[in-house]
Amino acid sequence: MRERIKLLLVEDERMLAEILSDTLSDRGFEVQLAADGEEALLCVHESAFDVVVTDVMMPRMDGFTLVKRLRSEGYRMPVLFLTARSATEDVVSGFESGGNDFLRKPFAIDELIVRVRALVGRVAIEEETPEGPYRLGSLLFYGEQHCLESLEGRKITLPAREGEVLVRLCRKMNRTVEASAILRELWGDDNFFNLRSLNVYISRLRRRLAEDPSVEIISIRGVGYRLTTHE
Questions:
Q1: Which domains does the chain carry?
Q2: pTM as predicted
């Protein structure tokens, strides 16, 4: 990881964009501005970035659409959404589009910086340490690609956040993983709202793993989850 993090800031509120850019630059970041998703795509095509920080509601191309385009084109840099929206469905949609974290407006600049550094640091570790494959009964899970494969060779690539949750359960197979630990690592906050989002992903993973009844995600009330296999 480079000492100076190169950050693409996508924000259509010009005054906010300039304040954030100046502050981040003073704190050691190399910042490039884009006013909307279309402009951001052009920036990514022309230069490499360590992280993208983007608003959600923007003209021409919103943040969710931007990230879907980036992922479809193979770009894997982490993305942090800035948003005033707070519905669970919006958060889930953001993660399914390929986003890595959310920060609700208004926010403290120090929290933004901490989250950006955490995202960039996490990517560096993951690139050095490939995940899996993990054997889940008759299924194989390739954590690095978020790919679930059956014995018959059927493959499905999980949405980014769903895959990251399963990676953390696989790392501690047959042991309890605290929900708060997953939330702090992936969401940056273990509040009740984020716990509801995590529960949505756990439910989806259960449906995917139901192909093999020997694989089970057990809820440990008030603590977390345990991924188990029964031979």
A1: 6-128 (3.40.50.2300), 134-229 (1.10.10.10)
A2: 0.58
